[in-house]
Fold these 3 entries.
Entry 1:
Amino acid sequence: MTPLEIVKKEIVDLHDFFTEWFNGTVERDQLEPRFLSRLHNDIQFIPPEGLVMTADIIREGFARGYGTNPNFRCHIRDVDIRYVRHDVVLATYTEWQTGAAMSADANNARRTSVLVEMTEPVTWLHIQETWLPESERKAGSFDV
């Protein structure tokens, strides 16, 4: 598989897991192997609101979020490899969410940049999200 294929599969699979997790349709014991084990110890996740979240904060938030959002859906689009250096990849993608109970707008879209290490499994080093402009949201589709 090419780096694009590996990273795209990782991103889509992880977001499919998020949907299952927040819907409560996956076993609780899957949090560690399917998500937390992929986070680097020093990861920083910066959601669109600009907070800086560490691995511990992410872990606590997901533990509390299990099954709390049965209407949540997420669709990944436009995965692109922006940079590759040795075994580190910078990728971007758009994420279209519907039924997002914890967002100001239940239907929202964001552009995400991720830095990952091409280990087995892929290790997430850094994540930063930015709200898509209203013009892009209106031109797009929330169909998932």
Note: Residues 110 and 131 are 4 Å apart (CA to CA).
Entry 2:
Amino acid sequence: MKFEMPGNCGNSPRMQTVAEFARAWGEADSEFFGEWFSEEPAWAVLPGEASTSDVMNNLRGDIEELQILDVVTHGKFGSVDGTARTKSGDRLHFAHFLVFTSAAKSGKIASIRSYLVGA
């Protein structure tokens, strides 16, 4: 998968983790999720709701290109937005809002709210 992110994402460990979350989402990287998810984070996908496995199964290997536009973090909160292109050529705008278990750089992802909109 082609992956692009802004150069400032390496400015803090939390920014890097949030950017890597978007990459892992695009690649359906279960290893990353195993390392960074708390026991079973709540994951709401809007519009509508889906479980973590639904989100991953629907995207497994389908995203060919992912571009991060912005990453914002503060304390135990982080967000990332961007665009994705699927292998079939469909475009998708996404935004993920993450809440970590703590503000420490080792805090795990406790919940995610994702917005996915076709372009």
Note: Strands lie at 2-4, 37-46, 63-74, 77-86, 91-100, 109-118.
Entry 3:
Amino acid sequence: MSVSPRSDLVEAYDGARVRITGFAVPFNNEAPPYRRLLLIPFSGACVKFPPPRNQAILLDVAQGITLDDFVDPVAVTGVMTVAPAETDIAKTGYRITAETIAPAE
């Protein structure tokens, strides 16, 4: 029996416009304004325990964003795609082209 390398990902999210909350983490080698970040489900997830790829989302922020604090949750709105990737800090299963990033309510 073969298992698809994307079997843990939800294909129905591909191309969906979403609003999702989580914690934004910049990559180690980038300086603000951040144009590429990870959205993870809980604060500190990438430090010792990276989340599974179906819970980690790569964010593309064309206009860039400066975040003052990475321990406060954010709400991201944009178009999500199923796009497995591997970064220097986590494996991701999804990508969002972010239209807005704001403090979560």
Note: The chain has a mean pLDDT of 87.
